[in-house]
Specification:
Arc Repressor Mutant, subunit A; 2 domains; elongated; 73% helix; mainly alpha
């Protein structure tokens, strides 16, 4: 009997394929070819493309949390302090592919493409809840600061994707995220 791929093997390969080619190019057939397996094996673990995409997007979110986990060792008082902690952990070439994928998913959500139009707002809401845990203040203050931090960081990361690292660094400095 040959090698049997696990759900995690297929998910890892799915994320790698999405990072290489984009979410819009992620199909059962391409993934199966990449792994050298039958596409029915992929469908066994991920019955619909929506299931596959949801798992890939959630896996991407987990990777982002891992990148930021160490940066958020101490609670922050506000969005700017949190952005100052996050920026060094995110503004590097190794993180760029995950953010390219994240912004592709956001674009597909903004275009009302299924499943992104429901999946990405859920991801952002979960992300906001997670970021709130690293802020001080009342729940209402922490939510507002988390949303501000996400807006600031995502704006800088989008600028980095579209205009380059130098433009994002200049903007981060001007916004007070870096010295």
């Amino acid at each position: 009997m040959g090698y049997r791929h696990t759900k995690q093997d297929i998910l890892d390969a799915s994320l790698a394929a999405a990072l290489d080619d984009g979410l819009s190019q992620l199909t059962f057939g391409r993934l199966a070819a990449r792994l050298g397996i039958n596409d029915r094996t992929v469908v066994y673990y991920f019955p619909t493309k929506q299931d596959l995409v949801a798992e890939v997007v959630m896996s991407m979110g987990v990777q982002l949390q891992v990148m930021l986990g160490q940066a958020f060792a101490e609670p922050a008082e506000n969005h700017l302090e949190l952005a100052r902690k996050a920026w060094p952990a995110l503004a590097h070439a190794e993180a760029d592919p995950i953010f390219a994928l994240f912004f592709e998913a956001n674009g597909l959500a903004a275009a009302r493409r299924t499943p992104y139009s429901t999946l990405i707002p859920q991801l952002i809401d979960a992300w906001t809840d997670w970021v709130m845990t690293f802020l001080t203040g009342t729940a209402r203050q922490r939510r507002a600061e988390a949303e501000a931090a996400i807006a600031l960081i995502d704006g800088l990361l989008l600028l980095r994707q579209l205009a380059g690292a130098a433009a994002a660094a200049r903007a981060a400095e001007r916004l007070g995220v870096t010295d």
